[in-house]
Amino acid sequence: MRHLFLMRHAKARQATGDMSDHQRPLRRRGQRQATAMAAPLKRWGALAGEIHLSSSRRTRETLAAIDAALPSLGLRGRAHRHDALYAFDGQALLAWLRTLPDEADRVLVIGHNPALVELARWLCREAPDTLPTGGLLHLVLPDTPWSALEPHDAGLAASLVPEAASHALFQRRAPAPPKLPKADLAARLQGQLSHLHRLVRALEPGVIAGVDPEFLHQYRVNLRRSRAIGEAVLATASQSGSGKVPGLKKRLKRLKQRAQATSDLRDLDVFLESLAKAPPPLGEGALHALHDWLRALARAQHQRLCQQLRQPDYAEEMQAWQAFLDSAGFREALARLSATRIEAVLAERIAGHDRDLAGLAPEAPDEAFHNLRKTVKRIRYLAELEPKRNRDFLKGLKQRQTLLGDFQDLCTREAWLEAFAADSRDAGREACDAWRRELDAQKLSLREQIMALAPLSD
After folding, report:
1. What's the whole-model pTM score?
2. Looking at the predicted structure, is the pLDDT value of residue 451 above 90?
3. How many Å is the Cα radius of gyration of the chain?
């Protein structure tokens, strides 16, 4: 098989004065786009073969930014510049492609639109009809001579744009929250839930791309926050005696299941990030083996999650959730809410937290501490319904949630480590046992700090 990677140059400045189109440099945004694409280009193997680019300044600076992000690869020294690739017609690009030697089985072309899109559509029925700046297409072709290329010979293996590779770039174009400074509580909550729904849908391409773990984290956060607001509506409806909110409980259960489907992958991402930031007391061989083992698990989990997100029932679920948020019944339920009722439910949850905290003991199972963490998150989400009123309370809650989150991460890390040790040789198990003892000591310290926390009602 042959692999053809088509990349459009990153965002460039418009020509001004005597500047020709050929001389247009990258904008700052373009520099960030190219940098964001470096890691996926390497991961996809696009940089392992031949690299060809247009002679224009913007394509050269695109490669320079990628090269700066991956200095050990020496990309600029390997790349070939061609005036023929400074083309805007797909047939001209195809003519150049047909001149490639047969031994070139992996080729990256950095060029221009509309030539790239026209070529991709000629080669592949599934190719998109647009390619934003910095965008990348991976086409797989049969192992036939380049000179013998025929229409629709290729299949689309993958496509990616910078805004799905970098959460920082995504944020610049993410759905903006609604501006409802004078709206009543019901309108604010309805607007917030609709905004969270839009964010979840907008984050999905980044989750599927799997390049930047922050997409997955924010996807989880927004699903959970949506569920928490919905639970607050249920809780306050029950407290006020106004009865049930038809259909809400069932939909919240589905949101919970969708968030839970991301749990293992998020935990693996956090573990891998921790290995990079603070290498554990393992030998080089054991550390490398652990890293590979975790990566393999993460890839399997990511593949499973992507399959779920691509299923028709997922899209139907998300559409049904938005329709429910817009329904008259749900708006009526929101209208029955009041700040007083929310504060009453918040007080109940704080009292429950304080009872659970007082009941903790040194011999308590880890699950008791995990349950306390979940309670704190529910309290936080509920308090955030009235952020101005609860500003100081939320500020103090953040430190408590961080402490409990650190304990959760240690427990998860210990569980993954135990599973890895079970698959390792004796030497690997010994190294893991020493690290586990260190993790146990850290957990004990966190337990003591958690048990020493003051009640939230103080």
Report:
1. 0.89
2. yes
3. 27
